[in-house]
Each structure stands twice: as C-alpha cells, then as structure tokens.
Design goal:
- Helix 3 links the parallel strand 4 and strand 5.
- A five-stranded mixed sheet has the order 1-2-3-4-5, with helices on both faces.
- The chain contains four helices and five strands; from the N terminus they run E-H-H-E-E-E-H-E-H.
- Helix 1 crosses helix 2.
Length: 148
C-alpha cells in the first residue's frame, strides 16, 4: 500500500477540520469549527508555529499530524511537540500510525530539535504502547493547565 505524508495546504482544511472533530469526539473535547478553521489557516500559513501534515493512503487523506515548535531552556533549545496524531478508523490497522511516528523521528533529527514531547490520554493503552515502541518514555512531571 502506497502511503505519503505531505505538508497540508489550506485547501485541505475542510477535511482536516472534519477529522479533528471526530478525534475530539472520542474524549468529548469541545470543538468549535469556526475557530478550528481559523487556527488551521494561521498554523499552515505561519511556519514559525510548526507544521501540519496529512497522511495519504492511495490518494485518500487517511489522517493528520500536527508538530508544534517551541523553545525550552530545560531541554536546551528548540523542541518539537507532537500535538496531534490521528488516523481515521477505516484506515487503522494499516501501520499508518507507525509510519507517522517514523516520519516524526526523521523530522526531529533532520531539523535538529532537542527532544520530541507528546501528551496522551491515560486510557489510551494502544497508543501508549505504540509510542513506547518508538522510544517515548513517561516524563517524571505531570502536565498542568491554566485556562481563562
């Protein structure tokens, strides 16, 4: 099966937004379509934030990943945050998650990021095992959030 991981374009936003809506529904996250579209436009058009990629299998968009760049003194420079990785249910089981993580590891090395961080839902054992297989480890700290 031929797969590609390609940089997303603004023309992909309707399909990306639909996938994000489905992804967020899994854990009952709120989803604002207008805000999501605005954020995709900004994120795709302003390289400083990171990159959005579409996962394509046999000419169909099968999923997406969002890689966010930021600076950390603790980790010694620019780091990469794997903000989202989603594969549509009908494309799961075709090793696309594995291919996406191989892509992330290559992107990380080629772009000289210090580390790759990600967050995972505590109940998502399948994803956790996949990430661990690719060398990710639990960090000794917990993630906290401040909302307005």
């Amino acid at each position: 099966m031929n797969h590609e991981i390609l940089k997303a374009a603004t023309s992909d936003i309707p399909e990306l937004s639909g996938m994000m809506k489905d992804f967020y529904a899994i854990d009952l996250y709120p989803f604002d379509e207008k805000l999501t579209v605005e954020n995709f436009v900004k994120f795709i058009n302003e390289e400083k934030y990171g990159d959005c990629f579409k996962i394509v299998l046999e000419d169909e968009i099968a999923g997406y990943l969002i890689l966010v760049k930021y600076f950390s003194f603790e980790f010694g420079g620019e780091i990469l945050f794997l903000d989202e990785l989603y594969v549509k249910p009908e494309f799961q089981g075709k090793s696309l998650g594995k291919k996406a993580l191989e892509f992330v590891k290559n992107y990380w090395v080629e772009n000289h990021f210090k580390v790759v961080l990600l967050e995972i839902e505590n109940h998502n054992d399948k994803a956790k095992k996949l990430y661990e297989h690719y060398g990710f480890q639990n960090h000794k700290r917990s993630l906290m959030i401040l909302k307005n």
